[in-house]
Amino acid sequence: MLGGVACAACNTLNAADAKFCQSCGKSTQPARCTQCAATLMVGARFCGQCGKPGG
Questions:
Q1: For residue 1, what are the contacts with CB-CB under 8 A and spacing of at least 6?
Q2: Are 18 and 5 in contact (CB under 8 A)?
Q3: 49 CB contacts (<8 Å, ≥6 apart)?
Q4: What are 27's strand-pairing partners?
Q5: pLDDT in tens, 1-55
Q6: Contact between 50 and 38 (Cβ < 8 Å)
């Protein structure tokens, strides 16, 4: 499948427009920081914009 999105939790390749993994059910959408609403990278322990732990 070209243009798909790999699940960060289980690495299953999903359709490019999938909102949840077809294998494990985790969200495929980027997380947002609860303090500044910046987009967080998968696995981020701190927000890259405001430094909040856990985003």
A1: 13, 15
A2: yes
A3: 33, 36, 38
A4: 20
A5: 467 989 988 999 999 999 999 999 999 988 899 999 999 987 889 999 999 998 5
A6: yes
